[in-house]
Amino acid sequence: MDKNKVEMFAQELFDAERGRKAILPMTERDPAFDLDMAYAVQMENVGRVLTMGHRISGKKIGLTSLPMQKQMGVDEPDYGHLFDAMNCEDGRVSAEALIQPKIEAELAFILKKQLRGGQVTAEDVAEATDYVVGAFEIVDSRVADWRIKLPDTVADNASSGRYVLGTTRIAPKDVDLKTVAMKLYKIENMINKRTTPMGTNPELVGEGIGAAVLGDPLVAVAWLANKLWSYGVALEAGETVLSGAFSAAPAAQKGDMFRAEFTHFGCVEARFI
């Protein structure tokens, strides 16, 4: 592997995120840019972020739906890292800090035990999980116009951006996560509709069930634990794991508000300010 290229692409992505200026796809500029190099780029920038004083708060899983995998020409998901600064605890997301955000509704697992060893099952995930909540992941690409192939998004930390966690906490053994249903609504843009009260005229922009996430969100988290262990990395107690989107991700911009309504898990809201 060309370490100079790894450092070069990592620096480009690092600068793109902070300067809010997208770069050209790496796969278009270097035919040799593959998944191994892409994960090396991701880890290079994980190190840079840790050096800045941030901490890893969890992991995210992407490409969990079969249609998205087919679109990318792959047969498994990908993953990225979450950092403490990505957590929008009040549901307010700074649109100006992002480049081209989209929003996904999913379930988040908060772990109470470590998951490691390479043979993690869905039952192990349920045992290791403190609770599950509804969540938003705000994905953002540092690659121009979302013109990505799998190595591009992997290098770009799986297009991670921000996340919002809901407040209704349920142990995974208390609900069949495969059957959890979600409806995603977009509220009228409050920049363009200043006289419209917040919460009126919601538009249904997505819906899905937990089974859309690798058949079961528990299976998705088990996949992640086993994939990470192939690199000698464990999922740690206290980490948040975003398990994958229930539906396609609509674009978001300043002034937008979104509400995801889950069965069992209540509502999660995000406002782009």
Instruction: List segments where confidence is low: pLDDT < 50 over at least 5 consecutive residues.
Output: 194-198
Please state the structural category.
Answer: alpha+beta
Strand order in the sheet with the most strands: 2-1-9-4-5-6
Shape: globular
Share in β-strands = 25-35%
What is the assembly state of the chains in this entry? single chain
Helix % is: 25-40%
Total helical segments: 7
Overall pLDDT score = 93
Instruction: Determine Rg (CA atoms, Å).
Output: 18 Å
What string gives the helices and strands in order? HHHEHEEEHEHEEEHEEE
Biggest beta sheet attributes: 6 strands, mixed
Q: Tell me how many strands there are.
A: 11
Main traits of this protein?
single chain, alpha+beta, globular, 273 residues
Question: What is the gist of this entry?
Answer:
The protein has 273 residues and is α+β, with helices and mostly antiparallel strands. It has helices at 3-19, 26-29, 35-51, 66-72, 122-128, 150-155, 217-229; strands at residues 56-62, 78-83, 92-93, 102-111, 129-139, 162-165, 181-187, 203-209, 240-245, 257-262, 266-272.
Could you please describe the fold and organization of this structure?
The longest helix is centred in the first third of the chain and has 17 residues, at 3-19. With 273 residues, the chain is α+β, with helices and mostly antiparallel strands. Helix content is 26%, strand content 27%. Residues 194-198 have low confidence and may be disordered. Helix 1 (3-19) crosses helix 3 (35-51) and helix 5 crosses helix 7 (217-229).
